[in-house]
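Hey, quick one: can you model this chain's 3D structure?
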Amino acid sequence: MEALIEALYAIPFLGVVFQFVGYVLEVLPNVAPIVLGLATPIALGALCGLLNERSGIVNIGIEGMMITGAFMGFTVAAFLAPSFPAEPTPLFGLTPPLIIGVVAAVLSAMALSLLHAWMSITIKADQIISGTIINIIALGLTAYLNQLISRTSPASPGRLDKFDVPPGLVDLPVVGWIVEMFLRQGPIAMSVIIIVIVLQVMLFRSRWGLRTRAVGEHPKAAETVGIDVIRLRYRNVMIGGIFAGLAGAYLSMEATTGFQNGMTNGRGFIALAALIFGRWTPVGALLAALLFTASEALGTAISFGPPEGQLGEVLTGIPSQVFSALPYLITIIVLAGVVGRSVAPAAVGRPYEKEGTA
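Sure thing. Here's the predicted structure for all 358 residues.
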């Protein structure tokens, strides 16, 4: 077997490709938890967009909702930390300030979702403009408020810790690294797989899912069978805000221990690309998010343990910024090649007028 591998590696040009594939397969078990961690905010943002667009509402304000959730979650937890000096629990390092902070992140994102729903559904404003307004206001306001609050030097509320996976599960043959990927995470990242499975089943195997898809495809036909289109759209847009808030809370309270201006770094827009690439399905959106972030995790692996030989020399010569930019490059490539073949819900982006009110 080793002789065959060496023979493949010796092939001009293709040998480098085979070496790269072999290196990826070798380091994949080690970087898998990093990939899921990086994909968490993108996947949650994509689920937010999924509920919006499946209901017929375009939402490009995910970025603003995420940054608002990140700011509110951390700020509320930081100011509550001195009042609740409790020791973190062994499970995830939970404390009352952290729990309240996550709730604050979710509620703030839901408030922006309500604003977007009001402008898009009730006022019937252009949905792209509505989302753009939310992004501009959220990014600017959080940066300004963060500058003011940082002068008071609020106490650090800590962070949500990762789950300590039992060694017996990690050492399982073949599937051990997959178990570690999903379990060696904090509570928000770990909940992504559960949320995706539940949404996948609910969207395609429940009455709510059937009604949601009907409202996004043929709202007038849905109304004729007794579905309240306006109410269902409001409700789904609000539920989508929960996922955007969780994404923000992950960034400032689980992935890091603080808030930084613009820390979403375009993840809300990558989430929309993941949604399109995943063909407006929860499982597809998660897989797309994992694909987009795998390159960044690979860059981390190369910086700590590059492959041997010429391949290692080539990869270590690539600036780390290139690997950080790869998710955005992949997003452009995916959008250029997939958008034309992906079919969005038929009524997405179209304001709805009730029969008799037009």
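One thing worth noting: DSSP finds 15 helices and no strands in the chain.
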